Each structure stands twice: as C-alpha cells, then as structure tokens.
Amino acid sequence: MIVVSRAQFTAAAVPLTKMARGRVYFFSTALDTEIPESKRKYIPRSGTYPKGFAVAGSYVGVKASNTRFPDLALICSETPCSAAAVFTTNKFQAAPVQVSKATLEKRHGQGIRSIVINAGCANAVTGKGGIEDAWSMGAEVDKCNGLHEPSTIVMSTGVIGQRLPIKKIVDAIPVTHSQLSSTHSAWLSTARAICTTDTFPKLISQSFTLPSSPDRTYSLAGITKGAGMIHPNMATLLGALCTDAPIEPSALKSLLNHAVARSFNSISVDGDTSTNDTVVLMANGAAGGKSIGSASSADYATMQDILTMFAQSLSQLVVRDGEGATKFVTVRVQNSPCYESARIIAATIARSPLVKTALYGRDANWGRILCAVGYAQGVKSGVVMPERTSVSFKPVDGSPVLKLLINGEPEKVDEARASAILQDEDLEIVVDLGGGEQGESGLAREEAVYWFCDFSHEYITINGDYRT
Amino acid sequence: MIVVSRAQFTAAAVPLTKMARGRVYFFSTALDTEIPESKRKYIPRSGTYPKGFAVAGSYVGVKASNTRFPDLALICSETPCSAAAVFTTNKFQAAPVQVSKATLEKRHGQGIRSIVINAGCANAVTGKGGIEDAWSMGAEVDKCNGLHEPSTIVMSTGVIGQRLPIKKIVDAIPVTHSQLSSTHSAWLSTARAICTTDTFPKLISQSFTLPSSPDRTYSLAGITKGAGMIHPNMATLLGALCTDAPIEPSALKSLLNHAVARSFNSISVDGDTSTNDTVVLMANGAAGGKSIGSASSADYATMQDILTMFAQSLSQLVVRDGEGATKFVTVRVQNSPCYESARIIAATIARSPLVKTALYGRDANWGRILCAVGYAQGVKSGVVMPERTSVSFKPVDGSPVLKLLINGEPEKVDEARASAILQDEDLEIVVDLGGGEQGESGLAREEAVYWFCDFSHEYITINGDYRT
C-alpha cells in the first residue's frame, strides 16, 4: 500500500526523491544518453503531475540484448481510479489487450489502481500461456497494492510470437513498486521504460482548471511510445494518461474516445496497426471538486477540449520520432459536409507512399495529394466535388498560404516559394472541400486533421534491414 | 479507311512491313535501347495477333523533353468492334476517362473502331478545355477512319494539371494512322509509345480456341504500362486488349470486369490509384465463328478463363517493372468463407509498407503479414479467426512450403531456409484462413490473389527526387 502525502506527490521539483511504502529512495538513470541532439528539445525539464499518482521505470532485461535500459514501467494511484482505454482494432489482439479489456469490463471502468507495462516482448500470438502471463503481471502489481481483485491495466510491446520471461518480470515488480515516486525524474524514467526503438522518451504534463471550481488546480500527465507498426517486432503505440480530476467512468470513456479519435488515431507513420496498441486514461479525483458526469455540463466540455489537445500534443511526439522521418506534416481537410469522410481523406493522404516520398523530396506535388483525395475509399457521396476542391500549403512561419489548386483548377505555382516552404521541418497541407455538394451552405462544417511524417531512405533501411 | 486483307493482318512474322490505306511503309524504332538487361526477357520476339487490327506507335514530342521516343499509340480495327472498359474509381477523373466513358455509353459498347493513347501528359485536372482536347483526339482518328460518330477510346498518361499540346497531337494522327500495321514490330512500337517511366514495353499475345468451333484459331493481344501512381506526374495504369473473337457487348463487359478484378485490380506497386487508369477490351469478331453472348455458354466460360489468365500475365509485367522493385511477390489468401474479404486481406498485405520493406530486406517477418491480416479494413465478421489462421512461404522452385504460423501458433522457423527462399526474386506468401468461423466446412471455398513488389531505397529515390 502506498502511503505518501499529497504534498509529496505534488512536489514535482523535488530532485530524485523516491517515495513509496513510506521509504525514500534515490536513483539515477542514463536518460540523456544516446538521445539525438535534434530530439532533446522534446524532453521536458520539469512537469506538473497529477496528485495521488506514483510511478517508476526499472530495468528487467526482458529482451536478452537489453543490458541496461529500463524496460518495466509501473504507474499506481493511491486511491481507486475511474479508467477507460482504447484498444487496437487488429483482429490479432495481444494477450495484454485481452486481459486489460477483461479487467476493465469486470470492474465496469472503476476501482482501477495501476498500469504495468513491459518493453522488449509484445506477448502477442502467444496462446493461452501468454494470457496467463499477462494476468500474472497484473496480479503481482495488485498484490503489491494489497488488492485481491484485478485492478491493473497490462500492456506489452516488443517482439511478436515469443513468450515473456515472466518470472523475471514478476520478480521485478515488487522492487519496482518500492521505487514508486511522483517526481519529474520518476515520470521521465517511466516514459523511458516503455520505449523500444523510440529515440527519446515521450512525456508531457499540464495543469488546468474546470469551470465548476476555477480556483482548484488539476493536472494531467501522459507518456507514450512508438507509432503504429514502425517496427512490428519491436514497437506498438502505447499511451498512459493520468489525471487527478474526478470523472465518472462513462464520461471518462466518451472523453477518451473523442480525444483518441482526434490524436492517437489521427497520426500515421506507416499506416500499419499493431496487435498491441493501447491508450489508457486513469482519473483518481485526488484534486477534489465536483465529479464530471453528464456530457452536457460545462466541466465536461472543458475537459474534452483539454484532454483532446493534450492527447494531440502527446501523440504528435510519436510522429516527431517516426522512423527515418525528416518532416512533420499536418493535413487539414476542411469544409467537409461529413466529419468521418474528412477523416478518411486526411488518413488516405497521410498514408500515401507517394505523398510521403514527395514530401521527403521537398516536392510541391499537389497531383499526388489530389489523387489521394480522389481514391480515398469509404468517402460518402457528395463530399468530394472536383470543381469545389482546393489544395494549399500553409507555411509554419505565418506567411500567406501557397495555393496549389483552387476549385479544381491548378494554380501557376511559385516553385521557388514552394521549395522554400518545403525546406522547413514542419508543413501544413490544407485540403478545402468547399462544402462538397452542399457548396456555400456546407462551408465551415466539418474538419479533420491528421499528423504524419515522410518516407525516407532511412525508413527503408530501418525496416528492410531490421533482422539482418 | 483501312483496306488491308486479313492475310496481311495475320502475317505477324513479316518484318517491319507497314500496311495502311493500301500503302506499305517501313520503319524502325529504338525499342531495344536503354532497356535493362534483366528486363529484356519480358519482351516477346514474336507474337500471334488478332485479325483485323492494325497498330502504330509514333513520335510526337508531347513532353518537351522527349526528343525521340514514340509517345502516340493508335490501335484500329478494320471493322466495328464490341468494346468495354474499366476506368479508375478516382473521383478526379481525367478528361480522356470522361470522354471515353461517354463514347462507350453513347455507342452502347458497339461500333468502336479505335483506341488512341498519348504519353507525356495526362490531360487531368484540365477543365473544359481538357475535355475538348480529348474529344479532338478521338475525332481526328474517326476522321482518318472516315467515320462521323465518336468511335474512338481516348487515353492519356503523364503530367497532371497541364494541357495537352493538342495541335501537335492532332497533326500527328493522320501520319500515325498511315503507318498502321499488324506486324509484331508495330505492336511492340505501339506498346513502347504508351510507356512513361516504364523500363520496358509490355506486350503479350496468344492464340486460343473456343468449344463451339475447336478448329478455329482466335488471337488475343494486349499492351499495358505503368502501375498505379508509381510516378504520379508521369504514370498511370493503362491497358488495351484486342481479340478477333466475336463477343456481344454485354458479355464483353462482364468478361472484362471479371478479368480486371483478378488482374489489373489485383496488383499493387504503391497502392495509389491514378486519375487516368483505364483498361479497354475490343472484340472485332474478325476470326468468325459463333458470337459469345450468354454467360452460361461453354464459350463464355472458356473465354473468361482465357481472358483472366491473359490479363493476369499482362498486369504482372507492371509489377515486374515496379519502380525500384527487387522482388515479385504473389500473396494468396485461401480458404476464406468470402471472396471479397479475401481480396481485401490480400490487398492490405500487398500495400503494407512494412511487409514491402521486410521483403526488400529478405526478412521472413510473418508478424508483419499477420498484422496486416488483422488490421485489414472492411473484412466481414467471421472471416479472420486468429486460431484458424496459418501463414507460409511457398518457394518458386517447387520445394516444400515453409510454415511460419499454423492455426495461430508460431512455428519454430528454419531461418537459414527462410533466408534462402527470400533470396529468389519470386516468392509466394500463402495466408490460409482455415474456413474462418465455418472451420472445416468452409475450407477450399474462396481464394484471392494479389501480386506486388517490394519497397526499396530506389523507390524512395525515384519518388522523392522526382522533380528535383
């Protein structure tokens, strides 16, 4: 049982102080080693973390070749949480996905206390033994928390088709549990422990207020890793978000669904979807205040905006770390008569190998973008009207947009300016559907945004030479 | 009006003899220059061509940078043909697609005499002027044939968003028409004239018989080019097939749809679909015999098999010429309770960047294949049952299959053998769905096959550096 005061949990600035079971630990980690210079700007130097949560990342050596990096992450709340998760839609669902789903169903999204994550082995396509292993991981965490009912969400990432070194993991859980802490350093170490081929740990946090108690400070923290199936034997998309705001399970589920659709499910590195993808959100209510329940309340609306933007920022770090990526591209499909169709179009552009290679080559090739708009499958009739479709590049420096196609007619493009815009790491592509068949009356109706990276030689090298 | 005897048209072995309007021409072309050594085996040295068709490929210089290669192709039948076509489903349909559709509709698939194709400019996203240009091309061909009704299918391939140099093209049509010929050399020159970034011309022909007149010889010839959107400003998938068998328009349409679904629409280089994709089939009945009408006739069934296999062989040449491709991969999804779902799964594997890069890296990475099976969108419920799914590699040398996954359980893979199999240019991946939820009773039910190539460094170079 964790017995740490709230004062301690909010002390994010306390350096390297570990608090659990009333004891204090010190530790250090090689977090900054081997992180590329260009990625260091994405690693926060401090944070504002939710009350009542303690975390730890420790070394187990799940993968034999890992001799020093943390690969077991543990997140615990001192009180029971509302919890919700979005899981992969892949039909080959890894054991931890099946187990976590069962746990959330059995507990009706309440009474969840912990998240345990290992890197190095995905525990996918591992049969009944794999399911038992996933249960064992969760049960050991529950035992450390003095609980008898399943109260832990389990995640794994790594090689497919191999069993976990379950004894090593279970043996390491009590030690890891004893290192639980609420410091910035502990959060960073936890973020590091779920990485596989990521080049940097992905952690963000923020504080916020809700309309019903404007003087109360809430916090939200999240860690994430990997993107889709960048390295299918190694990676998966995992996300764990924690808040000290009080949220009912049903509201939590709909808040998370909304946020994930617009963040983790709106990014693309290579379009593949792993067997293990999981994003979980825990809310322990430790900061107090009125519980968020009804979707029609002002608190709910505010929480939705905050959570969605937060999840977007977190998921964008995954794109920033896309294998071999040299560009970070936002594609905005606007003035669509239908949100879902706009989303399909954005996703199709984001996944087009030809768009991705053109961007790598700094080529203002609007024909490839237009083609992707035109062949997107599942778009509702009347959404894409060639004569109402416009495409432009929006520079990140705030200079005017570069129009490439207006109402289906190609513009005479200033190639020098196009080239200059494409030199920047960041780019926004705007596809304006002009209201579709509704025309003017459909303007400003629906908008979908996707974030993606380019395909580079490095991507092919990494993915082609993976096992050789 | 073409006045050439049938005897002349069948004289495929006559070297370089051009026949049109009663005159005889000689020509030569630089067909064999710049064709990679490894691709020369795909270029036929002779052929058996359908009676009553004459063809020509000539140089126009549609693209200013093209100073010598043929870029205008003309195919004419001396008598009216039944004709059918399958067009791109891209919503941005190029002008020639719109015009050819209108012509086929207006003529109810009958009375078609010619196909005219230019390379170097796609006449796509070119507004009303582009539509007029496409009509002009067809009208000029009809004029040469002494016809007043639209009787020509028009196709274009090349840069998007630019108008055709229509005067140059229209001026070149009578000259090209005067060079029409039925020789092997003329067919090869015609195949060459539709190429853009293809490294070799794609032409095949074959003779066949039909059950209703076993002593009569029919012929089928076809040319094709490009794949999907390999080079979106330059390429598109075009195919033109001609037969001297007599086929009713309605039967022709269903025969072509069946064949294209299992050939041109079952190949993938990069998964993108162009604005111009068109495959057309003309049947002039010049070889005589009973006309194929009812889908329940023995002739229809035979024709369906012949046309489908022919279209498969022709379309596979496109995959052989995939940009940067080092491998030719067949993916067979078998024992599916549903054909369409099997097809979606095969297409998803064929398009997965991770599968494609793994194959480039000669990596027996069944996890990537399995993941693609699992995330395929639109697959019917009950088709993919993890515990009934098996994956294996089938070597092209006839040696035993290498089992990677059996009924959802990973095999201990002989990596040395896997590596040896993957060294071959050709590979077949077999995904066995085990009958899906129907189990044993669903075995041997439905099967879908896709052909695709790998993603290589060369692909990125070609597509990333296209305009630089």
TrEMBL record, chains A, B:
Substrate binds at residues 196, 225, 236, 323, 463, 468. Gene3D superfamilies: arginine biosynthesis bifunctional protein suprefamily (3.30.2330.10), ArgJ beta chain, C-terminal domain (3.10.20.340), L-amino peptidase D-ALA esterase/amidase (3.60.70.12). Pathway: Amino-acid biosynthesis; L-arginine biosynthesis; L-ornithine and N-acetyl-L-glutamate from L-glutamate and N(2)-acetyl-L-ornithine (cyclic): step 1/1; Amino-acid biosynthesis; L-arginine biosynthesis; N(2)-acetyl-L-ornithine from L-glutamate: step 1/4. It catalyses: N(2)-acetyl-L-ornithine + L-glutamate = N-acetyl-L-glutamate + L-ornithine; L-glutamate + acetyl-CoA = N-acetyl-L-glutamate + CoA + H(+). GO terms for molecular function: L-glutamate N-acetyltransferase activity; L-glutamate N-acetyltransferase activity, acting on acetyl-L-ornithine as donor. GO terms for biological process: L-arginine biosynthetic process; ornithine biosynthetic process. This is Arginine biosynthesis bifunctional protein ArgJ, mitochondrial.
